Amino acid sequence: MENWPAWETLLLWSGIFSAGAFVAVIAGVPWVVWRLPQDYFSRRRRQVLRETPLAMVYDGVLAALKNIVGAGLVALGLLMLVTPGQGLLTVLVGLLLMNFPGKYRLERWLVMRPGVLRALNWLRRRRGLPPFDTPRARDLSGQ
Question: Rounded CA gap, 27 and 105, in Å?
Fold first, then answer.
């Protein structure tokens, strides 16, 4: 019991981080979903948006920062699997922030789950945006 104040502090900060992560996810996910183009998940490959030399430097710095933040979230999420917090959700957000081979395939696989696609399209509908095109819907239309 002599270490109780240390545990109490750790639990307090874990709870604060958990609440902050929850609020960030609640605010951040809709913002990202609204900014994605309608055909984002129906493309075979991810589209490069910037091609100027300055934009490539900017993208490199941004990618490094995203990978550092993503790795930190994965580590914290793994810690939250055994402490209070949304560990699985934090690991998932961290993975989706990071750049790694096969990430786009993972994103497409996740979105093709019926409940996930339905929830994302519900967010888009609330904003007045068209639903995401899916690879299946695109193949059926003959494009």
Answer: 25
User: Please, are residues 52 and 35 in contact by the beta-carbon 8 Å criterion?
Assistant: no
Is pTM beyond 0.70? Reply is no
| Burial of 9 per CB tally in 10 Å (0-12, 13-18, 19+) | exposed
Q: How much of the chain exceeds pLDDT 90, in percent?
A: 10
- pLDDT tens digit string along 41-58? 887 777 665 666 777 788
Low-confidence ranges of the chain (pLDDT < 70): 1-4, 47-52, 84-85, 136-143
CB 112 within 8 A of CB 120: no
Contact 140, 134 (CB under 8 A): no
Task: Name, in order, each residue with C-beta under 8 angstroms of 48's C-beta and a sequence gap of 6 or more.
Answer: none
- Residues 6+ away with beta carbon under 8 Å from 14: 80, 83, 84, 85
Question: Quick check: 120 and 111 in contact, CB under 8 A?
Answer: yes
